[in-house]
Hints:
Elements: H1 2-9, H2 15-25, H3 36-52, H4 55-60, H5 67-81, H6 88-95, H7 99-111, E1 115-119, E2 127-131, H8 133-153, H9 159-178
Antiparallel strand pairs: 1-2
Helix pairs in contact: 5-7, 5-8, 6-7
Region (Disordered): 1-34
Pfam families: MarR_2 (PF12802)
Protein name: MarR family transcriptional regulator
Amino acid sequence: MEQSHRQATGAPSDPAGDRAGHASREGQVDSKGHDAALAQAGPALFRMIRYWARRWPQRAAGAETETKHVSRVVVVDIVGTTPGRPNVRSIADALGVDPSVASRMVADTVAAGLIERRTMERDARNADLALTESGHDLLAHARTWQGDVFAALTADWPAEDRETFAALLVRFADRATSAGL
C-alpha cells in the first residue's frame, strides 16, 4: 500500500533517499541533450497539482470536508486575495468556470455567512464581494494550515534551501496565475 501511495502521490518513501536520487540526476543529460532534472520539473509540477487540487481546501476547512465546504474555502480564498473589488466574475475567472457556476458557489458561500455581497454604486445589478468576520477566520485558518504544511514538507531542508525555494515558489505561483496559460 505504501508503494502504491507513493506512486499515486509522488511522495518519497525515504526523504534522504529522495534527495540522494535527486542529487544524482542533477547535471545529468538525457538522450535528447536536456538536463534530466529540468525534464522532470513539468511532470513533478502536475503530480503536485493533482495531489493538492482537492486536498488543500478539504484540510484547510478543518472537519468540513463535503464538496460544498471545499468550494466555500476556495471562494473565500479568492475573495480574500483578489486585489481591488472581487465579484462573481473574479471568482469565475480565477477558477476557469462559467459565471453561472461561480454565481452558485458565491450564493452558497454568502448563505454560509463567509462572504457578503455589496451592491456597486455604479451598477446595482452587480455586487462586490467581501469577507465577513467568519470568512476572515476561515482564511486565517487556511493560511496557518498552508504554512504548517510548507514547514512540515521542508522541515529537514537546510534553512537556505527553504528560503530559496519559498521565494522561487512565490515567484512561480505569481507568474503561473498571471500568465493566462
